[in-house]
Amino acid sequence: MMDRLYAPWRAAYFMNEPEPGCLFCRMLASQDDRAHYILARGERWFVVINRYPYTSGHVMVVCNRHVERVSDFAEAEGAEMTRLVARCERAIAQVYSPDGINIGANLGRSAGAGVVGHFHMHVVPRWQGDTNFMSSVGETRVVSEDLNDTYEKLRRALAE
Ligand SMILES: [Zn+2]
Q1: Is there a contact between 147 and 48 (Cβ–Cβ < 8 Å)?
Q2: 24 CA to middle of ligand 1, Å?
Q3: pTM, 2 dp
């Protein structure tokens, strides 16, 4: 449970990953944003819903380049990431009114990364007691909202 407390975004993308190559690079190349739950595309990053969310509204801000670390960023990439994370923060606050928000990244599988080697920042709405509730139901994550509803709500809020 401590893992969840400090790294709630340890979603197991790789458990469900039969296709070769990088999931985020495939998403980026795709023409169908809705099919992949891509919420917004910037010049250097895109925003996508986590298909295995820790809580409803869990999104990721993903670098367009296949780079692993913050130290790989160009100046302009760092600046745009901050702007997009801020947009996500505002949209999540507006749509979900959470008690708090986790923002963070896992570099490497040992750190909990589900997609290894392609940098992505998680933005996760949190509610008082959500961890406590989850420990009481063991490994079951609490996800109440349909992903399509999440998509519609957050896309609208991000566009504002
Ligand atoms: Zn990639």
Answers
A1: no
A2: 5
A3: 0.83
